[in-house]
Specification:
The protein is mainly alpha-helical. Strands 7-8-9 form a three-stranded antiparallel sheet. Strands 1-2 form a two-stranded antiparallel ribbon. Helix 2 runs antiparallel to helix 3, helix 3 packs across helix 5 and helix 4 packs antiparallel against helix 5. The structure holds zinc ion. Zinc ion binds next to loops. The site of zinc ion has 8 residues, from loops.
Length: 297
């Protein structure tokens, strides 16, 4: 009997990614969804309910932790040191493997993700001035980021001053307004990031295996879980905005994801271009134009 080492295995840990693959973030999405459905969408609001906000912001923080964990793993496997900027670290590596990769567009969306995360993690403080009528109906509000919170130069290029939303992905950056819709869009971006990484770098760089129980069935595809919620979303304005974001993401990135798998940017109705034709439990049906495919098992 000898104690000599016969075999050595190197394991590169990515703990952060488990928050998404084991459903912690999807549970938070589900918790945020209940109060979100009761929101008064037609009325002006300067914040979402505390229950929705708490669960959604926790989901945002954990999802971004997952993106950062994968960035570290990718950089390690590519024998690079990580820099301060997640967006440029990732796009530099993608560009090296795929010379026509649209680095500018990719960096902008990851930058918007980081801006939303920072506004939560660094407790950006806003002064919100609310205007009411005589009978206390809210007429509107002004929100101002107080000096000393957030890098104004970094923010100004990506955030619309009046709405305090990011320009491309429409993330709220006033922390009290971050809710279900922001976490939903962020998970779509996470899915895009996984899709690009697996096609451009290979599965070994970014292993992602979702295992999530939804209505009694185990689901392994993130875009299908999001499709389930999308059908139930009661805010038509957000659905329209999400479809339009997907349209441009698809135009920019569809050649950098594997067409054999179902991703958020390809899970789109071929007839009316609405998101979410592939649903959990192998249902293929558009929630808008009812275009569908009978799947034979
Ligand atoms: Zn359709």
């Amino acid at each position: 009997m000898t104690n000599r080492i016969a075999r050595k295995e190197k394991i590169i840990t990515v703990v952060g990614a488990n928050y998404i693959s084991y459903g912690v973030v999807l549970d938070l999405l589900s918790k945020a969804f209940e109060p979100y459905c009761k929101s008064p969408f037609t009325r002006k609001q300067f914040q979402v309910s505390i229950w929705e906000n708490t669960h959604a912001t926790a989901g945002v923080i954990l999802t971004v932790l997952g993106i950062e964990a994968y960035r570290n793993r990718i950089a390690y496997l590519d024998k690079r040191k990580i820099g301060k900027n997640v967006a440029s670290d990732l796009s530099t590596i993608f560009k090296k493997k795929a010379s026509i990769f649209p680095t500018g567009k990719f960096e902008e969306i990851i930058k918007e993700v980081m801006i939303m995360r920072d506004s939560i993690a660094h407790n950006h403080i806003y002064k919100v001035e609310v205007h009411y009528s005589q009978d206390w109906t809210m007429l509107g509000h002004k929100q101002k980021l107080l000096d000393g919170y957030g890098d104004s130069k970094r923010f100004s290029g990506s955030v619309v001053e009046k709405t305090r939303k990011t320009k491309v992905l429409r993330f709220n950056v006033q922390p009290a307004k971050i809710g279900f819709e922001d976490l939903f869009t962020l998970l779509a971006i996470f899915d895009l990031f996984v899709g690009i990484s697996q096609k451009v770098l290979g599965n070994a760089y970014l292993p992602f295996n979702l295992s999530y129980e939804l209505n009694g069935h185990w689901e392994d595809n993130l875009s299908k879980v999001l499709a389930y919620y999308f059908e139930l979303i009661p805010n038509p304005k957000f659905k329209k905005q999400f479809n339009s974001i997907l349209k441009s993401l698809k135009a920019d990135f569809s050649s950098f994801i594997d067409s054999l798998n179902t991703w958020v940017i390809t899970n789109i109705c071929p007839r009316c271009y609405t998101f979410g034709i592939d649903k959990p439990n192998n249902v293929v049906k558009c929630c808008k134009c009812t275009f569908g495919v009978q799947v034979i098992h």
